[in-house]
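--- STAGE predict ---
source: upstream dedup step, 1 unique chain passed
mode: sequence only
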Amino acid sequence: MKQAENIIVGISIGDLNGIGGEIVLKTFEDERILDFCTPVIFASIKVMSFLKTHFNSSINFHSINSVNQITTGKVNVFNTWKEPVKINFGQEDLKIGEFAVKSLASATQALKNGDVDILVTAPINKHNIQSEDFNFPGHTDYLAQELEGESLMFMVTDTLRIGLLTDHVPVKDVSTHITAELIQQKIATVYKSLVTDFNIQKPKIAVLGINPHTGDNGVIGSEDDDVLRPTLKKIKESGKLVYGPYAADSFFGSNNYKNFDAIIASYHDQGLIPFKTLSFGQGVNFTAGLNKIRTSPDHGTAYEIAGKGDADENSFKEALFSALKIYKNRSQFEELTSNPLKKAPRNERSKNYKDRQ
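--- STAGE serialize ---
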């Protein structure tokens, strides 16, 4: 991994009928960003020119057909397709879903090849991307297949980080998915990410219960007592600062979350409702645990405001800045841990000591 100087950022354009194109344009209208990163938008120059005109953007694009043509100091557009695209803002369209998949697949391949250093994804519509060739609930599941490691949906801001034991799983199936092995795996992933990606040397992690009131001693379910508590006890005995399970209903309202470097929720809404309530528009979805870095804004396609010029780019901008910071932290961690000081043989140490006398 190279040092974080001018990092090449791959950007998948997402659902073109949503707000993705608009927030990408607004983010890179600030030319100062080009001083420390080089964006590569995976779409087509025709599409990006249409969006530029529609939103009256001042961006000048650099059209490329090969990664060898990526130019620093420019907003590069990698021509991922040649066919025309009909954009109808605010409309769900299966054809638009196909272009979203093409953009994501091309950007991911560039990430795997090392042609781009990090990936920032604009929002997709999880319904219109489905096909025989693409059958994933979302970005996280697709990237888990394409990249190395154990993926985890990690919602982050500067002061709040929430990971999930289960993400895109129906509520009725949550308890059957949560096993001792899964708990250990997810906590290990969060712990490693906090150390390598966020530069926190001794992370303190809270885990929320599965059932209301963590089961009330079995009155409202036994999963917390049978699976969660004994597994957390075992993990804590290994030396990790892991606490819980905590009753989810009072955990955030009491500000207890401020005492921890990360919180692990048992299921999607248990974690994302408080996260978005506390940080909506400033939050970032980070796919932790993989060998490559991917982030995205904390919102969806927002069809209701698409094309109107009203979209707020702050979450996308935060996703970009977070990815850059994580890349820098990970680079520094790898440098520090991959070149440990080697002890010289004893006789050589003695010789060096005598030479200094």
